[in-house]
Design goal:
The chain has one domain. The protein is built from ten helices and no strands. Helix 4 runs antiparallel to helix 5, helix 8 packs across helix 9 and helix 9 runs antiparallel to helix 10. It is globular. The model has no long low-confidence stretch (mean pLDDT 85).
Length: 269
């Protein structure tokens, strides 16, 4: 089974289409970065998350075409990440680290699948549900269960652990181990390094804010305190120096989006 998946993983079509899909994945982050910047400037009319990004795309002249392209591109990326989750990162010798990277690939596949499904819904004019409202409704249901606060607290801890892993990846520059920098022009390698650091740190910071809010919802038993990325960023905006922090996160998301283009070309396999 693993051998067959490995053959699929190394197939030129899977590698090529998956890398094209990663460019679309990066594009979503660039749009989110722009939306985060709007929140930092006080614009309350836009959602600063993947649903907000799809809304922005849908309102352009080529909205349906671009949304279908995004859905298809992300589907390619999902396929690539799924095979990476089962048989990828063979160049990593330590089994524990290889397993961790495969789990990360699986998580990216889930995230990209969610965005791809939403993109095709928007393309068909069905729009999508409010992510913050859905998150709060789910949190309320869990809180109503026996030991609900403990369960929500466990989710908060999980999100904070993910945030820590992502932040550490940026600080330690461990993302470079997944790149064959010889595939990039010599003059661009330092730029890619800086983009990668800023991108991973920015994403990690955003996840950390979400984790803290979910944790507060667990402690207070108030689902209204929870929410997705958009709610987390708006909560952050209301804090002292929130605008500055949001601006930094916006730069981080933009950097990650551009980094994805370079990573798509130079990612090892």
């Amino acid at each position: 089974m693993s051998g067959a998946v490995g053959e699929v993983k190394d197939h030129p079509a899977v590698q090529g289409l998956g890398r094209v899909g990663m460019v679309f994945y990066g594009a979503v982050h660039v749009i989110i970065a722009w939306l985060v910047a709007q929140v930092a400037l006080g614009d309350a009319s836009r959602k600063a998350d993947s649903k907000g990004a799809l809304t922005e795309v849908s309102q352009t002249a080529l909205g349906p075409f671009l949304l279908w392209a995004l859905a298809i591109g992300l589907a390619f990326f999902v396929l690539w990440q799924v095979v990476e989750a089962f048989a990828g990162y063979t160049y990593v010798r330590e089994k524990r680290k290889r397993t961790g990277k495969r789990i990360g690939a699986g998580a990216r596949a889930i995230t990209a699948t969610t965005i791809a499904v939403a993109a095709q819904q928007y393309a068909r004019g069905k729009g999508g549900s409010d992510s913050t409202g859905t998150q709060r409704e789910l949190t309320a249901r869990v809180l109503a269960l026996p030991f609900g606060q403990v369960l929500v607290g466990a989710v908060a801890v999980g999100i904070l652990v993910i945030a820590g892993v992502v932040l550490r990846k940026g600080v330690k520059k461990s993302f470079e181990r997944d790149l064959d920098l010889s595939e990039l022009p010599a003059g661009s390698r330092r730029v890619v390094e800086r983009l990668g650091r800023a991108g991973w740190i920015g994403k990690g910071a955003a996840y950390a804010v979400i984790g803290v809010l979910v944790g507060i919802a667990a402690v207070t038993a108030d689902p209204g305190r929870s929410g997705g990325l958009d709610n987390a960023l708006r909560t952050l905006a209301a804090q002292p120096y929130g605008t500055v922090l949001l601006a930094l996160i916006a730069v981080g998301f933009a950097a990650f989006g551009v980094y994805c283009v370079a990573a798509a070309k130079a990612h090892r396999h």
